[in-house]
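User: I'm curious whether this sequence folds into something compact or stays loose and floppy. Could you predict its structure so I can see for myself?
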Amino acid sequence: MLPIFDKNFVVKQVVVMKNVVGQIPRGEDFYPRNDIINSFLDRIKSIKVAGVEIETTQSEALKSFTLAFEDLLRELEPESKLVIMVDEFPIAVENIAKVHGRQAAVQFLLANRAMRQRAKNGVLFIYTGSIGLPSVARKLDPAPTINDLNIVDITPLNPKEALEMCKILFRSGKVPIDEVVILYLLDKIKWHMPFFIQLLVQMLKDIWDNTQLDITTDDINQALDKAASNRSNAYLASYRDRLDKALTDDLRSLGLHILNFIAKEGSVHQNDLNLEETRNILEILEYDGYIYEQEGSYRFNSPILRMWWQKNA
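Assistant: Here's the prediction. I'll summarize afterward.
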């Protein structure tokens, strides 16, 4: 369940970008903006994120951005609260390291740390990413660039939450389906992360759109087979692609070898591994959601990902 902020909690939005599922219209006053925010925006020449560049007014964009942002954090009203959410932060750090060098990436992490420490108590930073920030930071520099952050693990939904999510999604898509069939779907998914639930529900909705017949267990098996066989599936392919972004050549080669073995055999026991050589990559793969360890054996978290990996990776 999403947290409910109290009435005094104000979120100030600087830039809104449309995401893949659309954008909810909001009134002009939904995100109030004061003179501090406007001053901050006026001092930025351009910001470039994922190939999209936003032009503003002044030169020396990076320096202006840092100084203006620090002014914003210092000059907030005492009762104000500001939530700063940064998606795919680890990949941004990786890209800085690739394009501008390791030292530039370390300086970027240190600049972020300095801004967090200078911010007032009402400022909350949230960094998210499809790869783990600790492993990225540790690879760049052993210095404490992120030791002031709390790591929050996102766990799978419990059975009751997963069932309710499925019901909401099917109801939203106007897809009639019996609860017993949903339970069969969840048993097949096993790892109840919203990503995999949404992926399969969308495939089942596509089947219903084409047939207009009630969803059956055979339809679920068909959707699972399609998810595992579709080589062009960008959602699952991202698990393979992000290893190239997150790992050095030697770690990537070792990680692929371990994942390929687990995909084929179902698991690998730590007694069959050289833990001195594999401890770091096992930690990364476990932290980033590929595998889990139980009684000394490592397995894929998601049966869907394992089937896809076996056929495509």
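Summary: Confidence is low (pLDDT under 50) at residues 1-34, 43-60. Strands lie at 46-49, 52-55, 82-86, 123-127, 268-269, 291-294, 297-300.
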